[in-house]
Amino acid sequence: MDISEELDKLFNKRSVEFIEKYNSNRLDNEKLIFTYLESLVSEKYARYIVISPLCSSFITQTYEYMLAVYGEELYLSNTSNSVYIVLPLMREHIVEDLKCVDSIVNNMEDENSLEDYERHEMKYQYSLRYLDIVKPLWKDIALDFIEYIKAKDKVFDIQNLDIIYGMYMERTESFISKESI
User: Is the pLDDT reported for residue 153 higher than 70?
Assistant: First the structure.
């Protein structure tokens, strides 16, 4: 078995564990994120909430997301406000996984001599796989957040709100749009 097959096997196992652990603490995870989202929605001219994974943080191994609010002009409005957050469970899993990646690479290194930059790239690419797992969780968080806001006594203007997910300055997917609220 080669390194990539071993890493696939590890990721398949660990991603299932991650989802199970996340779901077992879902309400606690959402409560923390809702606090940030609520502060962004309270902005006077909130039109867009952007959830953006910061790929550079996967290089530095801090695994951050930017939550930002914008007015009518996405990415260009003067009302932008943002917060950078880490999903602790995701970081914990990635850090543990990368130790396993090192072990797998070290055990197979006799067959496959790797340069340091190749090891770093392999670990970076491995950690980016978590973005595919976490994206649907963010969508669920966005949907639950809208329900949470609707149920609150304090009224926020969410009728014109879009919650979108994507790399910074890229509009990858709209989770919630004003048409769906």
Answer: no
